[in-house]
């Protein structure tokens, strides 16, 4: 039993004991909270604003007391309560001592000591007035901080909450001590025969009132702690979207243990009081106190390490639990209890919370492997918990879905349960903890939509909800906060989204071209608009597009974004408007509207007459930027001169260029490098006027190249001053289709050049350079006799004299990483067998990965390699 120590007269201990208690109350907070104290903010204000806060109170005393003054429970001292008045006297005496101690290190020591003496006299004469004075000072400081900084530091509120809890804890101990004193007086009164019955009845009434007020105060304190646990869980859920989060639970565990001890003490006092006063005075109180204790125990088991919120079947994952009252309930257990994990549906989770038909669903929503762990004390931290290291969802049973709901919108949870008996209290405890909602998927292509479901639930779930109800429509400003959190946390940057970015995102999600941010402030976005309805003219949703941008930025663009080199979230039309007035070569980096996870360069070209043309280079994906970085691609393109607005390209991107290494021959080979060019850009050579128009049956073949994604067609070779540069778009050999009228012709096949037609401007081209001898040589004239089968099928070919053809291939993907080509491929003409033999030879090189068909068969009018 916890009670106040008393002297022979039954009075409180000397005031020194209270001073020690108060010192202990504030000790843990001085260091933690000083950085966010009111004084640290107020002292930065202008002098005229600063002086109006104190109304004659010496500012030098406020400065010397600084954080100490804020670490006292002024706001919770009600001097009408005898206990609070007693505490106020003790705190004021400690304040005078603190001031005298601080004055020893000041040059005006004598003046400060006089002020301390004067302050001590006022405190003794009217302690309530001094309490109200300090309350007023702190209230005015708080108002000034809110006015200037718009909010108070979160730690300020945590500190006030802590001060209140400590003061109430001391008040409860005081009440328990008073109960013991009254019980002693009641015992003495009943033994004295001359005591009049009114005296005994008066003591009984005081005892009854004291116990009931203690229970009320205890429940109020417990409600505060349970609220703090709910807040911690909510912050944990928001951290899943990238919000900052402190995992520290030590302060909550300490409070739970204090409450548990008070529960036990108060229960004992209640039993003693009932024996003296009679049980009829406390008819409901024992049950009320018991239920309160059970609630505390059940709330003390939490999931401190959440499982992944998107779970793939047959994939291992981990989870962890913490039990705040382990040291109080399990220290003397012979065998530690076991925790079991089960997966349940949203409906089952709701029934569990409401306690409706709990026994009816013995069958879970799926099967979890390795689903038991022991609840035990961790030797390093001295806290009780359970760790599941190899959990795995073996299978999942889908429940009935409503309307158009997909499997990736179906939310589940993992329920952790533990049962144990406690002989001291003669009670059996059944404690449960529920994980955050999660989505179970069976294939990786469901991951994106599952993440959308979790993001929405994490962001917009309300605190005390039924599992897992969430609004179908949310205010656009809240969505902006969520998107910003997601972007910043996933990319790992401190550079968040700007108001201009949110305008573009609003235009996209609402299909509204307004440029006024106010037009969107009072609108709300629905779940359907977020991730069910396709964007106009696209095959993907808003979330799928945004998530693609996040993934691209995380993998390839973090440093560029952090250095403010990418505008990114801006429409093509608005980019054109910005660039039209800019000098030649100005460019902007923006995320592609038409391609998920792509970034494009928009730039302005001006001819000699000054006429402007805006070009949008084909978007680069993460795969493209893995081959050649964004900085190096920008460096390669000489037509790019200024980053908008008028910042020299090299000045902006110099740190992002790859440092050139000295090239030396290795193993007899001359090193090669990849550079980027833009087809048909102004200032580059264009196809000649004798361009060959492709026949319908030779239609466009979609490229599989990571750099150039547009269709490619046969056309004459784009000339280059450097014979070592292979021009033209990249083509996988598997995409090369040679048309023949029948079976294999016995002809010499020219090496066909594949490039974009002249009307497809702005597509990308990767070139191979570095070899002193041409990787490919232009072919000679085709022999009309041997070519007659091909030319008779396509007579337009004979109109070109001489026909100049060359194959453009992505050499790095075919394995030519600086390796010489075989003689047969370097020849001016080849037959089909030579091509096949050389391709097989390529695959024999170590480190070369070529996918070769097992056989080559005619396919009608077309031969496919």
UniProtKB/TrEMBL annotation:
Region (Disordered) residue spans: 1-31, 680-708
Biased composition (Basic and acidic residues): 9-18
InterPro entries membership: p53-like_TF_DNA-bd_sf, SH2, SH2_dom_sf, STAT, STAT_linker, STAT_N_sf, STAT_TF_alpha, STAT_TF_CC
One Pfam assignment: STAT_linker
Domain of life: Eukaryota
Database matches in PROSITE patterns: SH2
GO (cellular component) term, any one: cytoplasm
Claim: Signal is one of the keywords in the record: no
Principal place of residence: cytoplasm
Location relative to the cell: Cytoplasm; Nucleus
Biased composition (Polar residues): 680-693
GO BP annotations, alphabetical order: cell surface receptor signaling pathway
Keywords per UniProt: Activator, Cytoplasm, DNA-binding, Nucleus, Phosphoprotein, SH2 domain, Transcription, Transcription regulation
A molecular function (GO) term: RNA polymerase II transcription regulatory region sequence-specific DNA binding
Sequence ranges assigned to domain SH2 in this UniProt record: 545-663
PANTHER family membership: SIGNAL TRANSDUCER AND ACTIVATOR OF TRANSCRIPTION
Family (UniProt): Belongs to the transcription factor STAT family.
Protein name: Signal transducer and activator of transcription
């Amino acid at each position: 039993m916890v009670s106040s120590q008393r002297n022979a007269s039954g009075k409180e201990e000397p005031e020194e004991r209270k001073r020690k208690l108060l010192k202990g109350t504030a000790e843990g907070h001085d260091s933690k909270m000083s950085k966010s104290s009111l004084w640290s903010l107020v002292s930065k204000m202008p002098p005229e604003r600063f002086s109006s806060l104190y109304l004659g109170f010496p500012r030098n005393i406020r400065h010397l007391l600084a954080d100490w003054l804020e670490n006292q429970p002024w706001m919770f001292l009600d001097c009408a309560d005898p206990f609070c008045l007693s505490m106020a006297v003790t705190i004021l005496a400690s304040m005078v001592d603190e001031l005298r101690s601080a004055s020893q290190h000041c040059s005006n020591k004598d003046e400060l000591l006089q002020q301390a003496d004067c302050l001590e006299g006022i405190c003794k004469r009217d302690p309530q007035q001094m309490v109200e004075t300090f309350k007023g000072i702190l209230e005015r400081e708080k108002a000034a901080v809110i006015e200037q900084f718009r909010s108070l530091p979160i730690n300020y509120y945590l500190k006030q909450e802590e001060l209140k809890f400590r003061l109430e804890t001391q008040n409860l101990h005081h009440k328990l001590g008073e109960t013991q004193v009254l019980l002693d007086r009641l015992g003495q009164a009943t033994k004295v025969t001359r005591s009049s019955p009114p005296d005994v009845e008066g003591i009984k009434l005081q005892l009854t009132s004291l116990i009931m007020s203690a229970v009320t105060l205890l429940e109020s304190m417990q409600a505060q702690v349970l609220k703090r646990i709910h807040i911690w869980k909510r912050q944990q859920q928001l951290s899943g979207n990238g919000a900052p989060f402190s995992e520290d639970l030590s302060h909550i565990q300490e409070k739970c243990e204090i409450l548990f001890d008070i529960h036990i003490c108060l229960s004992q006092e209640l039993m003693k009081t009932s024996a003296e006063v009679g049980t009829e005075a406390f008819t409901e109180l024992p049950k009320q106190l018991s239920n309160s204790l059970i609630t505390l125990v059940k709330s003390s088991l939490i999931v401190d390490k959440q499982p992944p919120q998107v779970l793939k079947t047959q994939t291992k994952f981990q989870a962890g639990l913490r039990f705040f009252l382990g040291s109080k309930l399990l220290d003397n257990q012979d065998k530690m209890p076991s925790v079991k994990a089960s997966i349940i549906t949203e409906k089952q989770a709701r029934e569990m919370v409401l306690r409706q038909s709990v026994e009816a669903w013995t069958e879970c929503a799926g099967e979890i492997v390795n689903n038991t762990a022991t609840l035990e004390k961790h030797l390093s931290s001295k806290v009780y918990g359970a760790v599941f290291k190899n959990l795995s969802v073996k299978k999942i049973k889908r429940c009935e879905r409503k309307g158009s709901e997909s499997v990736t919108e179906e939310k589940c949870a993992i329920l952790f349960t533990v049962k144990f008996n406690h002989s001291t209290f003669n009670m059996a405890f059944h404690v449960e903890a529920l994980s955050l909602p999660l989505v179970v998927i069976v294939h990786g292509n469901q991951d994106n939509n599952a993440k959308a479901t979790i993001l929405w639930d994490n962001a917009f779930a309300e605190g005390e909800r039924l599992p897992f109800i969430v609004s179908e429509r949310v205010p656009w400003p809240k969505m902006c906060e969520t998107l910003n959190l997601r972007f910043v946390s996933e990319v790992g940057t401190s550079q968040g989204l700007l108001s201009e970015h949110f305008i573009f995102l609003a235009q996209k999600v609402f299909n509204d071209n307004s440029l006024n941010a106010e037009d969107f402030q009072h609108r709300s976005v629905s779940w359907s608009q977020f991730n069910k309805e396709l964007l106009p003219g696209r095959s993907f949703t808003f979330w799928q597009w945004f998530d693609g941008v996040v993934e691209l930025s995380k993998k390839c663009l973090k440093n560029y974004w952090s250095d403010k080199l990418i505008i990114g979230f801006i429409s093509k039309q608005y980019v054109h408007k910005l660039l039209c007035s800019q000098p030649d070569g100005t460019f902007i980096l923006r995320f592609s509207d038409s391609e998920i996870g792509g970034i494009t360069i928009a730039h302005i070209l001006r001819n000699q007459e000054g006429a402007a043309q805006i070009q949008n280079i084909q978007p680069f994906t993460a795969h493209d930027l893995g081959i050649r970085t964004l900085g190096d691609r920008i460096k390669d393109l000489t037509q790019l001169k200024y980053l908008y607005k008028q910042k020299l390209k090299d000045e902006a991107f110099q740190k992002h260029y790859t440092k050139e290494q000295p090239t030396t021959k290795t193993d007899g080979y001359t090193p090669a490098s990849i550079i980027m060019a833009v087809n048909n850009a102004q200032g580059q050579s264009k196809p000649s006027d004798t361009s060959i128009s492709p026949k319908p049956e030779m239609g466009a073949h979609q490229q599989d190249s990571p750099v150039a994604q547009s269709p490619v067609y046969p056309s004459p070779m784009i000339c280059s001053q450097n014979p070592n540069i292979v021009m033209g778009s990249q083509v996988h050999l598997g995409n090369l289709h040679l048309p023949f009228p029948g079976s294999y012709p016995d002809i010499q096949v020219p090496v066909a050049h594949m490039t974009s037609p002249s009307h497809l401007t702005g597509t990308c081209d990767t070139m191979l350079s570095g070899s002193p001898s041409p990787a490919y040589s232009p072919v000679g004239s085709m022999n009309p006799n041997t070519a007659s089968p091909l030319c008779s099928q396509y007579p337009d070919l004979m109109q070109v004299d001489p026909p100049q053809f060359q194959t453009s291939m992505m050499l790095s993907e075919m394995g030519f990483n600086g390796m010489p080509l075989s003689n047969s491929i370097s020849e001016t003409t080849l037959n089909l067998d030579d091509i096949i033999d050389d391709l097989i030879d390529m695959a024999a090189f170590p480190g070369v990965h070529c996918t070769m068909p097992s056989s080559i068969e005619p396919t009608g009018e077309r031969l496919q390699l």
